[in-house]
């Protein structure tokens, strides 16, 4: 099973590298992605510790940061809504 996981990982990295060089994206997209990731972390930190939304804590981990990085502000709303619906916390 471990060999299959490594095979899939290596295959995905090879395809990603191929697409980056084929489309001539360069490495500028990494700077944009890094900036979005930093802004996502800052937004989650502000939501957690500012007191705007009391009694709700959204952990800062790769899943939540990825959600906010890809979706932006609707991602934060999605996470807050999921937290309220799944854990029954009222605002």
Structural key phrases:
91 residues, mainly alpha, BofA, transmembrane helix, transmembrane, Pro-sigmaK processing inhibitor BofA family protein
Written description of the protein model:
The termini are far apart. The protein is mainly alpha-helical. 7% of the residues are buried. The protein is 76% helix and 0% strand. It has a domain at 28-87. It is built from four helices and no strands. The longest helix has 23 residues, at 28-50. α3 (62-71) packs across α4 (73-87). The protein is flat and about 45 Å long. This is Pro-sigmaK processing inhibitor BofA family protein. Keywords: Membrane, Transmembrane, Transmembrane helix. It comes from Paenibacillus farraposensis.
Write the layout of secondary structure elements.
Blueprint: H1 2-22, H2 28-50, H3 62-71, H4 73-87
Helix pairs in contact: 2-3, 3-4
Order of helices and strands: HHHH
> Treating each run of at least 4 consecutive H or I residues as one helix, how many helices?
4
Mean pLDDT: 82
Question: What profile does the largest beta sheet have?
Answer: none
Helical fraction: over 70%
Q: Would you identify the regions where 5 or more consecutive residues have pLDDT less than 50?
A: none
Strand fraction equals: under 5%
Report, as a whole number of angstroms, the end-to-end distance: 45 Å
How many whole angstroms does the radius of gyration measure? 18 Å
Overall number of strands: 0
Could you say which overall geometry the principal axes of the C-alpha atoms support?
flat
Specify the structural class: mainly alpha
């Amino acid at each position: 099973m471990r060999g299959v996981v490594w095979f899939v990982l290596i295959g995905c990295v090879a395809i990603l590298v191929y697409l980056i060089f084929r489309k001539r994206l360069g490495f500028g997209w990494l700077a944009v992605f890094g900036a979005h990731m930093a802004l996502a972390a800052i937004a989650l930190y502000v939501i957690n510790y500012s007191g705007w939304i009391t009694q709700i804590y959204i952990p800062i981990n790769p899943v939540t940061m990825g959600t906010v990085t890809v979706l932006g502000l609707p991602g934060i709303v999605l996470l807050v809504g999921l937290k309220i619906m799944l854990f029954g916390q009222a605002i």
